Amino acid sequence: MSESSPKKPPRRGIYLLPNLLTTGALFTGFYSIVAAIDGNFLAAAWAIYVAMFLDGLDGRVARMTSTESDFGKEYDSLADMVSFGLAPAIVTYQWGVERFSEYGPLWGRLGWLAAFLYTVAAAFRLARFNTSLAVDDKHYFQGLPSPPAASGIAAMVWISIEYQIQGTVALIAGISITALTGLAMMSNFRYQSFKDFNLSSRVRFANLLIIPLVLIVVSLNPPLVLFALFFVYATSAPLYWIWRQRRFMLKRLKKGEV
Fold it and tell me: pTM to 2 decimals?
């Protein structure tokens, strides 16, 4: 080959480990859908939590091993749409299918509309996140992130199974929580990202006790504790916004501006 011959561009590849974890998250999201269609809602809820764990792991592994790539980011976003956008919506809809028929067609329409609102909200949330990475404050998310939103839906279904909650109350709660969670994802409320939490940094030995304490609390009543954690996080941003607005109005009142 002569020196003037053009060199072939290097073949592109993908990093195995982080994308393997992303594939695992995608698989568990798909399994959650299949389990919900089969009526195994407990397994469907558990699968969403496994997907959350793998989703949180793949990004950290990619950063720790310097294997981040544009392909990995796009693949992770698509996997998130299945695991945290589509799967929770189908789980909550399938969970209510048997109950919807008992209360007439109106409840069925409300059920699938709430599920669709959640799905389109998750797609909107992910698209907005992907297009605003360069300008967003890394300490905050704009709108409720899709993994915590999915955990709330999974915990709600889990609680209904654990405590045999049925009837109109369950339907109203299910539709309301699904719809409100979707609206929270599309909102402009600022949620803490906790991205400044560094696993490789040194901490006081006493701080390590937080981990077993959290595990003990969750093990006491997993569905209730997980739903409580979701509720606290989901309402933290709106409540903080209300508190800031109230404080602002009080300052204006003191200055005589209102």
Answer: 0.85
